[in-house]
Specification:
This protein is α/β, with parallel strands linked by helices. The protein has ten helices and twelve strands. The two termini are 26 Å apart. The protein binds glutamic acid.
């Protein structure tokens, strides 16, 4: 099943998998990668991998190499160069500059603590409409004097979007209709690092991505990404948010739950082929003990048939 050539006769369809190289990929990440790959291949499209290594403290090249190896072990080979967000800061800064020129950003001097307090303040009337824990816009209305004090204090600002509370509705291929209000999301952290929501929007557009498949923990971020696409004049991809994989304790699967990476599983004698069967079974694409090849899965795959409930691993699975 390795190094197989795939038809890419639909140059307009381009999917992608965009992991953060902060550790090894676990079964949940691999399952999302598989769905993204199957979706692209079943439509004759291309499939890209982008390393979301904005945070250079938590990301590493070793993790990146390891993640690509895990994908390759399952037969998931990206088309074209793997790009790294850490090498594309200029693109993100240009997008922020454009938003600033349009008067759509503001500097935010709040500390984490101040943000926590502002978010939970009872007099915050906009909160009902905004996503959970949305920043209520304190620094949008600073007096010139207060702003001057903050600048003089040496605090470095983050850059936030000045959202206008517009509601966006997403027609998600798996999660269905989802609607949410865009908020004053951080575009650049106060250490100068561009933020995920900005970078992902810039990159998906720059790379010509037409279909985004990712974990449904990011569904609630989609309205703010739609807002940014609109403000930057970028096309909106089609979204498919895949339910998480949950461990026996009911929480989202993580490394601490046990044998959840290809390395852990290999130590127990579980081969990548076996993992592929397990992932495909969880997607309703094959029987629990059925050996499968990727090309067979491509034929069986339909994005609309991806289960909409989380995949619960049992204790014996781990
Ligand atoms: N880098 C994100 C993650 O690993 C995914 C971002 C995306 O797919 O939009 O959770």
């Amino acid at each position: 099943m390795h190094n197989e050539r795939w038809r890419t006769d639909n140059e307009h369809m381009r999917g992608r998998f965009a992991p953060s190289p902060t550790g090894q990929l676990h079964l949940g990440n691999l399952r999302t990668a598989l769905v993204s790959w199957l979706h692209a291949r079943s439509l004759g499209g291309e499939w890209l991998v982008r390393m979301e290594d904005l945070d250079r403290v938590t990301s590493s090249r070793a993790n990146e190499t390891d993640q690509l190896r895990s994908l390759a072990a399952l037969g998931l080979h990206p088309d074209g160069q793997v790009v790294r967000q850490s090498e594309r800061f200029e693109l993100y800064y240009a997008a922020i500059a454009r938003l600033r020129a349009d008067g759509r950003v503001y500097d935010c001097y709040c500390t984490r603590r101040e943000i926590r307090e502002a978010v939970s303040a009872p007099h915050n009337e906009r909160v009902g409409e905004l996503p959970e824990a949305a920043y209520p816009g304190t620094c949008r209305t600073l007096t010139a004097r207060r702003r001057a004090e903050l600048v003089a204090s040496g605090r470095r600002p983050a850059v936030r979007l000045a959202a206008d509370g517009e509601r966006f509705t997403v027609h998600d291929l798996v999660a269905g209709v989802y609607s949410g209000v865009s908020d004053d999301v951080v575009l650049q952290r106060n250490d100068g690092v561009p933020a995920y929501n900005l970078a992902v929007v810039v990159d998906d557009a720059a790379q010509g991505v037409t279909h985004v498949v990712r974990g449904d923990d990011l569904l609630s971020s989609t309205p703010r990404q739609r807002a940014l696409q609109q403000l930057l004049g970028l096309a909106t991809p089609t979204y498919a948010h895949i339910p998480m994989v949950v461990a026996p304790d009911g929480v989202r699967l993580a490394k601490r739950h046990g044998a959840v990476t290809l390395h852990d599983l290999a130590m127990r004698g579980v081969t990548p082929d076996r993992v592929l069967t397990r992932l495909a079974t969880s997607l309703g694409l094959c029987g629990p003990n059925e050996p499968v090849e990727l090309h067979e899965l491509v034929e069986r795959f339909q994005i609309g048939a991806v289960p909409t409930t989380p995949w619960s691993l049992s204790a014996t699975d781990l």
